[in-house]
User: What shape does this take?
Amino acid sequence: MSALTTRSETSALWLLLRVNALQSWRRLLATRNQSTLLTSIIAIFVLGYLVLSFELFYRGLKFIAGFPGLGAVLTERLLYVLFAFLFALLLLSNLIISYTNLFRNRETAFLLSLPVSNQTIFRWKLIESTILASWAFLFLIAPLLVAYGLVRGAPWHFYILTVVLIGLFIVLPSVLGAWLAIVIGRFLDRRSFQMTVVIMAVVLLFVAVWWKTQAATDELLDKRTLEALDQLLSKTRFTLFPFLPSYWLSTSVMQWAEGILRNSLFFALVLLSHTLFFGCLAFTRFGNLFYDTASAVQSRSSGNGFKINYFQTRTHQRRDGLLERFFKALFWLDRDTRALALKDMQMFWRDTTQWGQSVMFFGLLAVYIINLRNFTHQLASPFWINMVAFLNLGACAFNLASVTTRFVFPQFSLEGRRMWIIGLAPMGLARVVITKFWLASTMSLIITLCLITLSCYLLNMSWDRVLFFGAVVTVMSFTLNGLAVGLGVLYPNMKEANPNKIVSGFGGTLCFVLSSVYILASLGLIVFGAGGLHPSMLWSAASIIGFVTLSLLVGWVPLRWGLAHLKNFEL
Assistant: This one.
């Protein structure tokens, strides 16, 4: 009976894998047949990234390897730090995607109503979440490992082993992320659990402050090179902890490239044994935990995350929460506008996966900017100060482009088949779209403007330069939000409730591509005119006018087209 049950579960899992693979292949073929432009854009960007990133990694590793006696040490430490942080990012990505896939997915709810075992459903969702969370990691790391192998002169079998090790490595954060998603889903509504999360966040903040890099003082640089290097890299020693999966992967890869095959195989077997153990544990024991958690999540009244209104009066009348009181204070706005903005804010807050990803996007950027203080006094040249400032501007802009594409673009589509109700309301679809645009622009501008101002302050820039960068990021914020909102109306997907799938369509891809091209073109114009490359005031004024004109075209035109499209919009 046990063997028969196992065979039945294997057949069901194989059927799910085969059906979804076939559907994905058919969608790919349909996209190629229906939109040659989309296929061409994706192919060009994929090839361009692979070629450009390989060239940058190869030149960077070759440059580091050119330092006699230090190149190998720096390269090894960089790989240890890289894989350690990639493991943390993979864990966070798997946590967010697993939570959505397990408890906020229509397919999961449908499968739970079928005569399919809970363990089989969890196995399929674990595989799907691992693929969704790890493909970007593989895409990012492939050019680096190829460049590292070429710089080290590794044999051909180095690349085969590396592929196998990477495949084993991504299983561990996927299993741990799925387990954390189950724990969060099970206890998210409990006040004690929420307080624990807040305390952990505070502890992590203190850890981040402790972990900040040490500034390279003149006294330190006067010491012997190895001693100074060891002191500068002292806070990265935790990546050498032998019980970290990233340590096993890094050590195995580097020692195989150096020809130390026995030690490399040892760490590869350590990684394999842990992968098999935890993978087998998830494949055989997590099914019932998943089902119990799914039942708890679906049975909640709010069901989506942290509560906003904790307090009630003695007569059990609901009090206004913080957001309600805030929007009531905005008396100059119409009541319908405030109601819509409040609804969008509450929906965003209640969805843990949404604000969790936002915290990840802006949190990593904030940690980087805060650490600028540790090396700004070494930037004595105005050229390097301006370069770092413009690089920070580019980082904020690309981060903003990712946020607008991921969260702002699908806002119109997420209204779904309820759109006809909004269309019949006195407010009208046009004001709904305009309200969403202003709300998204305001919220993203507040965060991005704070980050770029902090960056300029830490670089000890004058206030006129701070105002200049603040004005630039303000224009970029409105432009990117206008582009995302406009394309979201022009290319809606009302049949899909999952924002990840909405963004992965033609409109979402086009939005991110146009956002990236706009950012690169804007940075080129601004650096040429205001970056000190050309001393002429005429050229500076021309570049700024060109930047403003480009921003109006990229942001205002799609938004205008989207509003015009609403006049003949049919659901």
Notes: The first helix runs from residue 2 to 34. The chain has two domains: 56-207+244-307, 351-571. The two ends are 51 Å apart (CA to CA).
